[in-house]
Each structure stands twice: as structure tokens, then as C-alpha cells.
Amino acid sequence: MTALENCADGLPAADTRPLKICLLGYRSHPYCGGQGIYLHYLSKALVEAGHSVDVISGQPYPELDPRVKLIKMPGLNLFEVENPTRALRWRHLLSWTDFYEWWTKLSGGFAEPYTFGRRAAKYLRQHGHRYDIVHDNQSLCYGLLNIEKSGLPVVATIHHPITRDRQLALEAAPDWRYRLLVRRWHSFLNMQIKVARKLRNIVTVSQQSKRDIIDQFGVQPEQIRLIYNGIDTDVFKPQPQIQRRTQRIMTTASADQPLKGLRFLLQAVAQLRHSQPELELLVVGRLQKGGATEQLLHQLGLQDAVHFVSGISNQQMVDYYASASVVVCPSLYEGFGLPAGEAMACGVPVISSDGGALPEVVGDAGIIVPAGDSAALVRALKKLLSDDKLRAELGEKGRQRIEQQFSWRLAAAHLVNYYREILGQKKIKSLPLRERGAAGNSRVEAA
């Protein structure tokens, strides 16, 4: 193949050399949610494809493949401190970034995306020449614009616009004081919206997220590339040696986040237990003492029927999936829906709401019900718990769907193609005008 034939859309001949990639994450531990899982698996898939990957992360730090270099970018980590008021030290007064992080936490805000961005941009001013491209994992901080202005290409993943979380939290707020706290906490969204509109290259993980980013962040469609997440099917796989508990339902939910829709599942379980008193619900998530979920458990009389586990390993998670007869994903909104994909990969039948991108992941390999509808959950659970054949059929279809459509190897390959496209555009812009014209003519001739 000639260099001319290798041109595409006016870009120079395809560059197949390994890339030097810098991934950014303001907090990246897998137990912090989907963003940590994304960094873990994406970085691993990229190094397995032959690329060099560094991860710059704030606390709590990620768990990474040994081939991936972790560059720690410590902040104050005030969410791990028992009394943030006492966390300030004299040295913090010498740093605007440290002081801002401390003061914002005390005043009810969330400064980590902003302060991480300042620290990461400072580091990359000195060390950015080591990398071909920088890929941010939803910090959407002002620092990204400074990095981009320095000439280093930047990509940002937006899993979904956090305006969705804010909207649902406001709707669930009991009074005006709580609504003020919700608005204060989400004030970092002003920065994220401004930055997203200015970035040239954005990745998102579902069609639903793409629509919502366009609608709620005001981003232009041509700025966004859709690349689905993957599921680690080597880890998340059927465990035939583990016996299923016929009366166990499982879900993954941050207990007091309205977004996750746990209360609708609790209402459904309470209703089902009138006819199936042995029914139990296993929740992978942390129960907040005195929170709304704990109060609801007492109101519904479910204290002994619902069990919470947290801080577990992937293998423990797989074992829990294997022990469940049904996994339920009751979220009001998901930008992708990793728990649904993981359960399907384990061969467990899934009941999912139609919240956000969940139908894109589940497809016809599960039962879809309207989000926020506990009666629909009751009907779906009755149907699935009473039909062994249907459970086996959906479990098998779910595993096949994940294997065929959602792999990290495929996600990494699509991302690398996108990186090379961006780098090719950068080369075109840096060429003299005469050579730019020649590159443009090459496209016509090749066509």
C-alpha cells in the first residue's frame, strides 16, 4: 500500500508507532465508582495493545496494571479526613490551590476537579513533552484548556453530564435548605460546562450520554466521538461451582443517591415478600447510618431482608453475582451501566430500568422496565423468579451479548484510532500552506 493510498480524509499516511498516552483522573480508585473502573481497564487495554501509558491521579489512587506508571498528584483528600476544619496546615496558606480546596470543602462545595486540574497542568508544563496525547477522565477542569493551548492534544471522556445527578438530587431534596446544599455541591458544573464547550475532542460512552451532553452542556455533535465501555470477560464470567440462591436478588447502588433508584427496588421487594417471605436482597454499596435508605428499610420492615456489602474485590463481586438468581439495575439514569454489563458477563439474568443508556447495554438480553416504577419491578421479578428456563436463556444471551459487543480490547482500539486521527489533524495544521493543499489533494486522488 502506498502512502497515498494510506491517506484518509486528508490526513498524512497512517502512523502505526506505539503512542505515549497520559491519562488523567482526579480520583480514581475502583471503589469510588465507574470512573476508577474506566481508568483501570482502559489503561490495561492500551498497554496490552503495545502503547506506553502513564496515569496522573489524585487520591484515592487507582489500582493499575504493573505495566502502567502511576504519577501521584496528592491533594488534601478531605473526604477521607474525619474533621476537615482541622486539616489546614500553615503550608497550605502558601498555596492557593490547597487553600481553595480546603475552603470549598468547608463551605459545602466540591473543588477536587478544579484543584486537580491546576496540579496536573503544572506538572505537564514541565513534563508534557513526554506524551503524544493527554486523555482526561471527566475532570473537565480549566487546566485542560491550558494543556491544550500548550500544543499538547487533549481528549476528555464524559461518562454522562452531572447535571443529571443534580436534577435528580434537587427533585429528591426534602426542603429548600437541602436544595441549597445540592446546588452548592454541584457548583463545579459551571466549570465543566464551560470547558466541555471549548474542548475539540470529547469521548462519551453511549448514545444517550451523547444526546444529553449536547442538550445539557451545549456541546456541538461534531466534538463528540461515541466509544462504548468494555467489560472484563476474563474476570466477570459464569461460576458454575457456586450454587445460586433461588431467593436472592442482587443490585449495585450507592444507597442514598436518588439517581440509583434503590428505593423503588426496596418497595418492590417489600411487596414481593408478602408471598415470598424468604426473598432477600443483596446490595453492593455502603448504607449511610441515619440516611434516607436506612429510614425506608425500617418503614418497609426490611431490616433483616436486605444486606449491604462494600469495599469488595472483583472476585468477591463475581462470586456474589454467581450466588444471585436475578440482578436488578433500578437506576433512574446511567451514562453506561457497568453493573448490568458485569452481571450479564457472569451469565446472570438482568432486570433493568430504561434509565439513560441501560437499554443500550442490556438490549434484548434482559427485561427492561420503566425507571421509577416499583410495580413494574414486581411484575418482572415475579416472572423471572418463577421461570427457570427464562432465567437460563437470558443468562446465556447476556453473556454472548457482552462478549460480542463490549470488550475493552475493542474500546482501546477505537480510542487509539481516534488518537491517531487527532494527531493527524495536528500535523496537517502544522504543515506549510503548500503542503496542506497537497495533503488535501491526496484525499481526492485516493478516493
From TrEMBL:
GO molecular-function term, one example from the UniProt record: glycosyltransferase activity
A Pfam family this chain is assigned to: Glyco_transf_4
UniProt keyword annotations, A-Z: Transferase
Chain segments annotated as transmembrane: none
Any one GO biological process: lipopolysaccharide biosynthetic process
Name this protein carries in UniProt: Glycosyl transferase
The organism of origin for this protein: Microbulbifer thermotolerans
